[in-house]
Amino acid sequence: MYTVMNRIPVPAAGAAAFEERFAASMRATLPGVPGLVGARLLRPQDEGGTYVAVMDFTTRDAFLAWMRSPAFHTAHGPSTGGMNGDVESFETVASVGA
């Protein structure tokens, strides 16, 4: 599995609007993305902290294909509010199912 994490700092005053906009974008653009296992938006425990968007793909190639897709460009267009994040990617080396 290939996991991508995007750390997005959001001021406390904009948190509710950010969550609503981000969740709507996920629902609109992610269903049916080939190779996408799941996606989550994690809320920071500290007010005005850094959100983490986590996406799991079957492979790195599936992630790269998504980055070239219309769904990616729709989700990351100018209407995203200009909030930039710090993106990291990982390949799973060990996993335990619940």
Verbal overview:
The chain has 98 residues and is of the alpha+beta class. It has one domain (2-91): Alpha-Beta Plaits (2-Layer Sandwich), CATH 3.30.70. Helix content is 30%, strand content 30%. It has three helices and four strands. The chain has helices spanning 15-29, 60-67, 70-75; strands at 2-9, 36-42, 50-57, 86-91. The chain has a four-stranded antiparallel β-sheet. A hairpin with a 7-residue loop joins strand 2 (36-42) and strand 3. The longest helix has 15 residues, at 15-29. The chain is globular. It starts with a strand and ends in a 7-residue tail after the last strand. The relative contact order is 0.31.
> Can you tell me the CATH topology?
Alpha-Beta Plaits
Radius of gyration: 14 Å
Number of domain modules: 1
Class by SSE composition: alpha+beta
Number of helices: 3
Task: List key phrases describing it.
3 helices, alpha+beta, 4-stranded antiparallel β-sheet, 30% helix, 98 residues, Alpha-Beta Plaits
Sequence-ordered SSE layout with sheet pairings:
Layout: E1 2-9, H1 15-29, E2 36-42, E3 50-57, H2 60-67, H3 70-75, E4 86-91
Antiparallel strand pairs: 1-3, 1-4, 2-3
